[in-house]
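Hello forum,

I keep getting stuck at the same step: I have a sequence, I want structure tokens, and every attempt I make locally crashes halfway through. Rather than fight my setup again tonight, could one of you with a working pipeline run this one for me? It's a single chain of 139 residues.
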Amino acid sequence: MSDDQLQVLVFLCKWSLQAETDWAERTQLLPNVRLVEVPCSGRINPLFILSALQHEADGVMVVGCEPDDCHYKEGNFLARRKLTTLKRFLKYIGLEEGRVRFAWIGDDERGKFHRLVEEMIAEVAALGPAEKPAARLAR
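Reply #2:
Ran it on my machine without issues. Output:
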């Protein structure tokens, strides 16, 4: 399977991309990358990520504000705790931890968003297509 057939879902905090150029370029992603803007990375329910991995996504990335710069004060720390727990669960059900990534983007980090997406695509490509958890558990 080629890199352009692998599906990557990105949950993006709407407050994390403050640079106008990055915000404008968020729509110029590869066709296999789906972007979901959320009010805060802390609002991401781990079940959203599991559902994405169960259905179409081969990898999921959550992008939040930099520490101490969260619009909602501690949403990014809450997201990190949720994803740390989720990664342990993924390991338990047999999915690679590399399929889920959490990243922070600060105001002064222009161009970082696209770099993070490209890194995620490369990591997912190295892992290959995700075996869907329900199929794995049904064996």
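Residues 3-127 form a domain with the Rossmann fold fold (CATH 3.40.50). If your local run keeps crashing, start a new thread with the error log.
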